[in-house]
Each structure stands twice: as C-alpha cells, then as structure tokens.
Design brief:
This protein has about 160 residues and is mainly beta. It is built from 1 helix and 9 strands, in the order αβββββββββ. A 5-stranded mixed sheet has the order 1-3-8-5-6, with no helix packed on it. The longest helix has 11 residues. It is globular, with a radius of gyration of 16 Å. The protein starts with about 25 loop residues before the first helix and ends with a strand.
Length: about 160
Amino acid sequence: DAGADDAGTDAGADDAGADDAGADSAADSASDASMMACVEATITTEAVSSTTIDAEDNFDPVDGCVGGFATGDDVVFAFTAGDAGTYRITVMPSPEWNPMVYVLDDCSGETCSDGTNFGSIGDPETLDIELAAVETATIVVDTALTDIFGGAFTIEVAAR
C-alpha cells in the first residue's frame, strides 16, 4: 500500500497510517507479498552487516546485467525510497572476498535493472539507481565466480 508511514513493507497489513487509506487492494497485497518473497532483510539508509557464508545460491545475474557470472551464495535485501531520486548502493566486502551487486525487477529473477562487478577482491562495489518515491528495489549481494566461498560485508544505501 506504500503509505508514507509504512514505505510499502507491510505486505498488505491494514495499518491505517497517516497517508494510508487503511484498506489494501488485493493486487497491492499480492504485489507486496510477491516482492518480499525472496527478500531476506529490509534495509534503510543505515549500514547493515551481513554475510553470504552459509547462505543459499538463489540467484544468478541475468545476462547483460552484470559483467560476470555469479555461482555462489547470495543475500537479498529490499530498500524502499522515501523520496524520488538517485540512490547509491555501496557494498564493502571483507578483504578476502569479491562480491557483485545487482538489482532485480522482482523476485522472479528473470529481469534485472542494473548491476556492478567492477571491484577486485576486497574492493567495494557501488551502484547508483533511480527510484520513484516509495519504490522498492530488490538488491542482491552475490558471490562472484572468482570466489565461490562467500564472505562478510557491509551494505549501505544513501540518497545522492
């Protein structure tokens, strides 16, 4: 329902927030639930520490989305923009790991809006994306082919 007070992450709960009419349409509820089906954590503009170690390999980047292949474990995050604009995703990996980052259009994993795999082992990956107000991005932090064992990282999303 994407009311200003709940940023669309309530998966259809009827919360009657200030900008929320209090009733969710069936399509809205299905869309929220579908988007959240693959998401392991919802993030804000605060940095979050995570790891792909012992995670599952749920996604590989769509051809043409990221310069490389990902065969290792991945972690999926949802970020909902407060305002329309450009947002920078930064993933700072542990010194021995090489991640790749991409944004899926939805949890089907069939389409990808953008991605990056330019850093080397231990180098941060950054990606700028455009989001509408209260639009949710499905962000995948994946293990690049050169390092199939995964690693720890910090992810942060910031308005530009």
